[in-house]
Amino acid sequence: MAAGPATAVLALRGVRVAGRGRPRLEDVNLSLAPGERVALLGASGAGKSTLLAVANGLLAPAAGTVLWEGQPPARSRRGRRRQQARIGTLWQDLRLIEELTVQQNLNAARLARWGWPRALLNLLLPLDTDACAAALRAMDLDPALLEQPVTALSGGQRQRVAMARLLRQEPTLLLADEPLASLDPRLAGELLALLLAQAVAPRALLLSLHRPDLLDGFDRAVGLRDGRVLFDGPVGQVSEALLADLYGGTPPGVAP
Amino acid sequence: MLLPALVLVPLAVLLPPLVHGGGWELIGSFALAAVTPSLDPVVLASLVKGLGVTVGMALLGWAGSLVLGLLLGACSSRTVWRTLTGSTMPAELIRRLLALPRAIHELIWGLLLLQLVGLQPAVAVLAIALPFGALVARVLSDLLDALPTTGLEALRAAGAPAPAALLTALGPALLPGVLSYGGYRLECALRSATLLGVFGLGGLGTDLKLTLQSLEFHELWSGLWLLLAVMLALEAGISLLRRRWLVPGRFVLARRGVGERSREMLLALAALVPLCVLVGRALGVDPAALLNWQPLPGLGGGDWAATWALPWPRLVGGTLLLTALAACLAVGLAPLLLLLVAPVGWARQGLRLLWALGRLWPPPLTALLLLFVLEPGVITAALALGFHNLGVLGRLLLESADATDPAAEEALDCGGSGPRLALLYGRFSALARPYLAYGAYRADVILRESVVVGLVGATGLGSQLLESLSSFAWDQLLALVAAYALLTLAGEDLSDRARHRWLRAG
């Protein structure tokens, strides 16, 4: 482990998630230090999505603890929201709000800090144009796109807008569930590089990946099989034998 | 799609014996008066004043129903409750409760309120606002719950508070539906306000009825043409706004920035508030006066035996028969007429005008007119109700026929099939399912509306209800309203199922 649990951006200890038949996660221990970039490997159904759902707080584990920046899930609503605001998730289906413009979508990431009066204003006026433009530029997008409705964008542009929205949220923990699955290899490489560039201390990145060939920019890899951590170590140690173990050992036909 | 028109066959058989032949000259002079409306300034001034009252009542009732509907709609949405509290139970409960005000026609509301608080402008406004509000709430919550929630979940996961997340994720998606349905409701409100006037709640409807009863056909037509002009202007205005605000954003990129559309709409809404206050002032609507309830005559010690002794099976049967006849007439005649006039270009315009007249004409007035030559009864009532709904359905059919792709029809026409068959195969075949589905919904509306032709129905719940109302028999009235509500709810359920079936099979 690179860092102690007190300073870890995310720490899972002995996490177990029940499922039908066998548990979806069993005794998972994982810790992300600030600035760390971790790739999550594993075949479909190995538990990658479940682990990410636990990591962003959508799924409460049946056993074990989850700590964000050393804190367990907050009790109060307000405290919980503040905690969630620091966890940014890049969804596989992006989850942009189709009726809104790029700028309104970017600002939607600020809602946790804004409350509803400014949320209402966001629907009527262009707010925080400079910050939104900066987020777009960081994702290699032309700020002129701000006024476009997101439905008018291409697939690659939408992906970048979703990533820019993630930046606007200013999270310390970046989570992404196979964000590159539906993209062509060149674009996938470009977007991954952009995402990795954003994961600098105090931020940490946990990204589930289907393709071991994209591992280069990561510090660490974590391999899951049948809901258990099979491997946790530097990317350099990921071997052909390990990959065969991760991807070959799953019985066919198991749904993710 | 044409099958419902088969109802014409039994009607053709049953109609002749009903004709008593007394008033053909009256009908003739009525028809002639259409082209020679009275232009007397005194008459016109009084009609314009009445029209103003009707439009004002419609506007206020509509605005009230929107406010009510938006609030109640949010309250009865499962998505909203799930996001706020995690449970959908309250939504289900409120949904059930709202079924009651919805099931009762605005006329019954109006007459009940009239008995309760006396004649005042606020009665008509409230009579429109209450059932319409419940209707808007239902449509709105259905729309809300049908929206995809992934965007909402993403915002919530990023820590957005529930109200802000709901507003941002679902608000913009909901807007087109609200606008489109809200506009349609304003048209309905105008029709309802006229109808309420026919039953003495003031405005142009009252004038129309009086002129008809005193056989002043020229003055009657002046009023009708005025009303037609207002209605067509309203419909055109609404469709203009719809087009301006609802065209997908990508086509208007160059001209409009972030939220400009929303700002325009908000401005329009903001302008509506002082307008409503002014109209309320002008009409003399006094909310405080609504609190002065008249003492209820004889409530409590009702004569339930007499209520029970009403001929219930005959009443319910009459209402259902009336509904079925009117629905078949309206649903079947619209495409049939359109087919018949297909070869003649200008006839389509004539049909459009006829339908506009049908829409604007309160069914009880048609019924009164029919009474000049027909005996009172279910068929007379069904004709009146059918004509009105033909106007509504016909417009819908024509609009959707114009909106479908003409390619198939052109191909058939070029193949020498003749214009009628080309229309039938080329366009109607594509429209049949949605049209029938809408027809099912319309049958539902007709059931609710059957009360308004109670004057001449003579057999249905509606006429019994009007009778009980005029004799202050509260016990009977309550039972009848309850029966109506039950029937409407059952009908709603049935038409929902039919609609799902037809739309799914498509």
Textual characterization of the structure:
The complex is a heterodimer of chains A (256) and B (506). Chain A has 256 residues and is of the alpha/beta class. Chain A contains nine helices and nine strands. In chain A, the strands form two sheets. In chain A, strands 5-6-7-3-8-9 form a six-stranded mixed β-sheet, with helices on both faces. Residues 1-6 and 250-256 of chain A have low confidence and may be disordered. Chain B has 506 residues and is mainly α. Helices cover 79% and strands 0% of the residues of chain B. Chain B has 22 helices and no strands. Chain B starts with 7 loop residues before the first helix and ends with a helix. Residues 249-255 of chain B have low confidence and may be disordered. The chains are: A alpha/beta (256), B mainly alpha (506). Chain A binds chain B through residues 56-58, 80-89, 91, 93, 95-101, 103-104, 108-109, 111-112, 114-116, 119-120, 122-126, 146-149, 151-152, 169, 171, and chain B through 150-151, 153-161, 163-165, 167-169, 171-173, 175, 248-250, 253, 257-259, 262-263, 266.
**Separation of the first and last Cα atoms of chain B:** 14 Å
Unreliable runs of chain B: 249-255
Mean pLDDT score of chain A: 83
* Count of strand segments of chain B: 0
Shape of chain A: globular
What share of the residues of chain A lie within helices? 25-40%
Largest two-chain interface: A-B, 46 and 31 residues
Strand order of the largest sheet of chain A: 5-6-7-3-8-9
Question: What Rg of chain B is obtained from the alpha carbons, in whole angstroms?
Answer: 24 Å
Distance between the termini of chain A: 28 Å
One letter per element, helices H and strands E, the order of chain A comes to: EEEHEHEHHHHHEHEEEH
What low-confidence regions of chain A span 5 or more consecutive residues with pLDDT below 50?
1-6, 250-256
Number of strands of chain A: 9
The class by helix and strand makeup of chain B works out as mainly alpha
Oligomer: heterodimer
